[in-house]
Automatic annotation (TrEMBL):
An annotated GO BP: methylation
Single GO molecular function: nucleic acid binding
Occurrences of domain Methyltransferase small (ranges): 33-126
Gene3D superfamilies, A to Z: Vaccinia Virus protein VP39
Keywords, sorted A to Z: Methyltransferase, Transferase
Keyword Methyltransferase: yes
The protein's name in its UniProt record: Methyltransferase small
One Pfam assignment: MTS
Biological source species: Syntrophothermus lipocalidus (strain DSM 12680 / TGB-C1)
Amino acid sequence: MNCREDETLDDLLRDNLRVVQGKKGYRFSVDAVLLAAFATLGRGSQVCELGAGSGVISVLLVQRDKSCSIKALEVQDSLWDRAVRTVKLNGLEDNIEVIKGDIRRVREIFPAGGFDLVVANPPFWRIGEGLLPEDPEVAAACHEVVVTLEEVIGAAAYLLRLGGKLALIQRAARLDEVIRLSHQYRVPVKRIRMVHPHQGRPANLVLTEGTKGAKPGVTVLSPLVIYEDTGIYTSEVISLYYGEER
């Protein structure tokens, strides 16, 4: 059975993909869709997703290139179980292996330098920032109660081969921290795309991609706007969800 009474089976809106999610607790948002589209994915890439949630980003990456192979790491039992079922539901077992494990213990799980790409949607809020949700799934996903941004970047640096890439999405207010930590762990940021809720509004999110061992120099891409003035998604975001402009 793919879906239980306390879960929903949701359409990812493209290529007949579906995802198993809890009715309560953590549920994926547009962040995952943006990150999956932003990351540089080469032919036959060996990919690691840190903090897989329900497996949405890994599933979307395989739809971009079915030659890639992904190890999706998730520490929460409930989310790990849903991610496993999401992968099976979409028939992607040959591409994606969902592993139960802690990002902070990644050296015990994977060898060093084995991946071409690491993707992660780390918690947005430091301890003491924002309102900590009562639900433990949401708290761990959105706040640094289990893993910190620095621990995610440090784990990625260990996992990446020389020239491998780290793609992240984070609050725009923490861009300076992402840049500092990426430089510290020798995965300097090379691509940046600011994400704005509406045209003319300040960015609230940022997509970054670092390259292990790269020389200094950053490309700032055109901004991505989520909503039209009417409140509907922009044509670019719609194309990311559906695979084509509508």
